[in-house]
Amino acid sequence: MKPLILYFYPNKASYVEKDLYILGKKYRIIKHCVNPSSKLKLPFSIIYQKLLCLRCFKAKYIVCQFAGYHSLLPVVMGKILKIKSLIILGGSDCSSFPEINYGNYRKPLLGWFTAKSIEMADIISPVHEKMIFYRYEYENFSNKNQGFEAFTKVKNQNIKVIYNGFSTGFFKNLNLPREKNFIAIATYNRPAVYYLKGIDLIEKAANEYKNINFTVVGVSDKYLKSSTTENLIFLPFLKQEELVKLLNRHYFYMQLSISEGFPNALCEAMLCACIPIVSNVCSMPDIIGNTGFVLQKRDEKLLFNLIEKVLSTPNLDKLSSEASKRVTENFSIEKRETELLKLLD
Fold it and tell me: Is the pTM value of this prediction over 0.70?
């Protein structure tokens, strides 16, 4: 019989499904979702965590996707029951930006749960080195030091960076004719996202470059008709088949977020051979390497200068191909599988 893993996570997401698939190759998994946004259910869900740990006291590992309210009790129970614990860190559990109401550590109680979880875990696996520590320079925010080391007292833990992994079977270059237009993907369902995901900068670029289309995918019905110029196109979430084709019709993908972890949409766009233009935030400059362009500071004039550079770049097809190749070679799902299973061996 396969050894048992207890897996706790705060919400359903593609990266959760990927890791469950990987771990399921070698382990039996009992999973439990602890949704922190459901305030009434949260205490009962945490109590159930305790009962689950007691019932499955022979489990080999306790794995938590992210650190937060849902991770502390499992880690503590792991210490009591002598079950090794692993926390996979991915973004908000490594940051604090009070100015934009983002990051676990901006809230004292959530920050305490997050920090104690990380400090007590046997193994910490951030999805990028900059989740450990980095200096934030993109926007003029008060907290320049980011990464979990800036907010915790981590000592002697086993820290292993394992990048997110992506399959090349679905998101790929279809070799369709492309146009020199820009596309972005963002869940624009509330006013704050307009600023958080840099849609305001994209809108300014659209007003500056009237002969170029700027498309944002993932816009809720409430904001679909809020575009201020004809060449700024807002689309709802699309079926994946439609999204892949749309990405393959564009040369350029924009991700001008104020904060990010290790964005899936960026890597999937690069797999579709879109040339990336990203903000100087966390993992993104490292993800794209020399296959794209980085907006160093959140400034519209710098963005316009960067767009001029992008549009005048020769041999776009070569750079487009290199963007796809970079994700395939460095961030494949096979690499994540090998390293994650080795970590728990």
Answer: yes
